[in-house]
């Protein structure tokens, strides 16, 4: 039988289930990735589960999100993460070493391996011939403990790549074109696999750009073959021995087919406030901008910065424009400095920030009120930038640089000068001194966890009740992101290890009365929310499930869920249900009361249940997609209780 690359990776790591699309499978996880916005909770979960040592081939804890030190909360948690990495046998990437995804690609990614990360953009490392997936933190904690990762077997969406990119067009325009075609939910329950003769014209970092924003398509992952370009990249990183060839068999087939001719791609822009709101640049050409931002995990490569540097070299940023430079790794920053690119930026008037996620997650660099921000970041969900009513456009580095010079969104093909010639470096700066290797076990087990005053234990989780009357506390529409459920940014993320405090920000972008209303009825049985399609798109932050759970949310009823958030809800004992008849959402109002009876038995007996709307003479038909294992977890009140029960048993 002929297999594509995705099927090979899954077959090699399959521990439970069958490779039948839609059925639950359990996969062996070789590597994990955690970052400081999500990893703090993961380390607390490892402690709660009594884990003595990571069972993976390599697990790494990165500090790249919460870098602003306006008080003691972030540095205190960094010390906790460092001690936890030592205690549990993880790599530790110190603050300033860079964004997790490109650093992992440089130092630890290996073709043929699986990678699970508590960050939705973990899929970026699919550029290396890996099956790389984002997940909630507790799923990653389980993988670190040596447990399988459970996921619905995805379909494989083959994308044949031909041609070569024209001048002024880059890999960011390729993935924006995919989003223009398919939108933010088009890839749900699929892995995108790129193949074909055009791949030879995409570098490993170009592939990283495309794989990274597979998350924005809603995909389970994105996979590229491991070929000569992968080998070249690993050789430059001093890791050629980690390379293996991995390609689709002759005659391999795909569940869905697509094709991209690189020579036909043109500059694209995603308008506010969705990565799927993509238009050709002609439609927004001339829009004034306040900020132009270059960097993030969606454009982390040397060329991404170097091309922008050559565009602004000898020129000056337009009056009233902030050109923000966001280096993505220390290695990248050193190489750019040595080649004179940082000087080009600074002389043009750019502002240089530390290597980290920074403004991408709303951790600094927030734009002014009522002004447009043009960014090479992967997301522009409402409020994600740190400014509540923001207006963020997404684009390529070429578009960002040209637009910064002109003070308005500008088609880079109208630059008025030749496309700069930027060559990839044939020698890189390799310095691992800010990536601490795991301690030997005998030394690690003596390490004490360093807990600052902001670290709070996870509250006990109640079992799923059998009978409930739940008022609908919020009714929402389509495409509600995890940033809207629980914002990121400098105000919120410092409380990532303190659930009672971080819960105060829940749904504030949607309805700033939610917290107070939820607290009023939390001890009276809790509440439900209802929403439309693609609920929970975006970040993998499990706080977006944990905080509503803490506030008494028992059930979420929506048209359909984004994959990671659906799994996070199930992991923490919030019952995720969908409408059998989507039109029923229109008949529900905030304040309606949903009556559940005999629920524990009903979800075991059938994937469909009937729920009464109190006082309205209306019955809803709802369904769940939980496996038998997840039903057991749900009834026990979540994965933490389930694990504790297993360990005690």
TrEMBL record:
Q: Which Pfam families match?
A: Aconitase (PF00330), Aconitase_C (PF00694)
**Chain spans, region Disordered:** 371-390
For this UniProt entry, what's an example GO CC term?
cytosol
Q: Where is the Aconitase/3-isopropylmalate dehydratase large subunit alpha/beta/alpha domain?
A: 8-407
For this entry, list what GO says about its biological process: tricarboxylic acid cycle
Q: Which SUPFAM superfamilies match?
A: Aconitase iron-sulfur domain, LeuD/IlvD-like
Q: Name one GO molecular function term.
A: aconitate hydratase activity
Give the EC number(s) under which this enzyme is classified.
Answer: 4.2.1.3
Catalyzed chemical reaction(s): citrate = D-threo-isocitrate
Q: Which residues are in the Aconitase A/isopropylmalate dehydratase small subunit swivel domain?
A: 513-581
According to the lineage, what is the superkingdom? Bacteria
Please provide the record's keywords in A-Z order. Answer: Iron, Iron-sulfur, Lyase, Metal-binding
Record's subunit section: Monomer.
This one is known as aconitate hydratase
The species this protein was found in = Halobacillus yeomjeoni
- Which lineage is the organism of this entry classified under, starting from the top rank? Bacteria, Bacillati, Bacillota, Bacilli, Bacillales
């Amino acid at each position: 039988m002929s297999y594509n690359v995705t099927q090979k990776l899954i077959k090699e790591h399959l521990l439970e289930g069958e490779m039948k699309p839609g059925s639950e499978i359990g996969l062996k996880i070789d590597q994990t990735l955690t970052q400081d916005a999500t990893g703090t909770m993961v380390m607390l979960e490892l402690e709660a589960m009594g884990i003595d040592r990571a069972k993976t081939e390599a697990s790494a804890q990165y500090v790249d999100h919460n870098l602003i030190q306006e008080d003691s909360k972030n540095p205190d948690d960094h010390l906790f993460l460092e001690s936890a990495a030592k205690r549990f046998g993880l790599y530790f990437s110190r603050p300033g070493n860079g964004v997790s995804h490109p650093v992992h690609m440089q130092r630890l990614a290996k073709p043929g391996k699986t990678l699970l990360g508590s960050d939705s953009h973990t899929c970026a490392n699919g550029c290396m011939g890996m099956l790389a997936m984002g997940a909630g933190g507790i799923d990653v904690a389980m993988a670190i403990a040596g447990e399988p990762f459970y996921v619905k077997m995805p379909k494989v969406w083959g994308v044949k790549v031909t041609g070569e990119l024209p001048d002024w067009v880059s890999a960011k325009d390729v993935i924006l074109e995919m989003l223009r075609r398919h939108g933010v939910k088009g890839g749900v329950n699929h892995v995108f696999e790129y193949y074909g003769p055009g791949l030879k014209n995409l570098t490993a970092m170009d592939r990283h750009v495309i794989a990274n924003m597979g998350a924005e398509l809603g995909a389970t992952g994105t996979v590229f073959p491991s070929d000569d370009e992968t080998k070249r990249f690993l050789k430059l990183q001093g890791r050629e021995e980690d390379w293996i060839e991995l390609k689709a068999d002759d005659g391999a087939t795909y569940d869905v087919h697509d094709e991209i001719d690189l020579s036909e791609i043109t500059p694209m822009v995603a308008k506010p406030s969705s990565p799927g709101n993509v238009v050709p640049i002609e439609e927004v050409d001339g829009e004034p901008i306040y900020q132009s931002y270059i960097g993030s995990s969606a454009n982390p490569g040397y060329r991404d910065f170097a091309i922008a540097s050559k565009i602004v070299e000898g020129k000056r940023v337009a009056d009233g424009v902030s050109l923000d430079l966001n280096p993505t790794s220390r290695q990248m920053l050193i190489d750019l400095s040595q080649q004179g690119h940082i000087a080009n930026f600074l002389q043009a008037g750019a502002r240089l920030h530390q290597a980290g996620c920074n403004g991408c997650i709303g951790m600094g660099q927030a734009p002014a009120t009522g002004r447009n921000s043009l960014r090479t970041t992967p997301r522009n969900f409402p409020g994600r930038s740190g400014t509540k009513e923001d207006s963020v456009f997404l684009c390529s580095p070429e578009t960002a640089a040209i637009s910064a010079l002109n003070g308005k969104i500008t088609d880079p093909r109208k630059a008025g000068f030749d496309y700069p010639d930027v060559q990839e470096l044939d020698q890189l700066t390799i310095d691992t001194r800010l990536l601490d290797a795991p301690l030997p076990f005998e030394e690690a087990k003596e390490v004490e966890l360093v807990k600052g005053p902001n670290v709070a234990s996870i509250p006990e989780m109640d079992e799923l009740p059998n009978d409930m009357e739940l008022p609908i506390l919020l009714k929402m529409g389509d495409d509600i992101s995890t940033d809207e459920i629980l914002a990121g940014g400098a105000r919120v993320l410092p409380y990532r290890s303190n659930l009672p405090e971080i819960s105060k920000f829940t749904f504030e972008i949607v309805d700033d009365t939610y917290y107070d209303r939820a607290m009023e009825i939390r001890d009276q049985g809790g509440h439900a929310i209802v929403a439309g399609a693609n609920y929970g798109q975006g970040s993998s932050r499990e706080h977006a499930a944990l905080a509503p759970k803490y506030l008494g949310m028992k059930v979420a009823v929506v048209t359909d869920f984004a994959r990671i958030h659906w799994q996070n809800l199930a992991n923490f004992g919030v019952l995720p249900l969908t409408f059998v008849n989507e039109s029923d959402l229109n008949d529900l109002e905030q304040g309606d009361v949903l009556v559940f009876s005999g629920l524990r038995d009903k979800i075991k007996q059938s994937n469909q249940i009937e729920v009464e709307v109190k006082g309205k003479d209306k019955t809803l038909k709802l369904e769940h997609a939980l496996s038998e294992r997840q039903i057991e977890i749900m009834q026990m009140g979540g994965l933490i209780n389930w694990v504790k029960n297993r360990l005690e048993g």
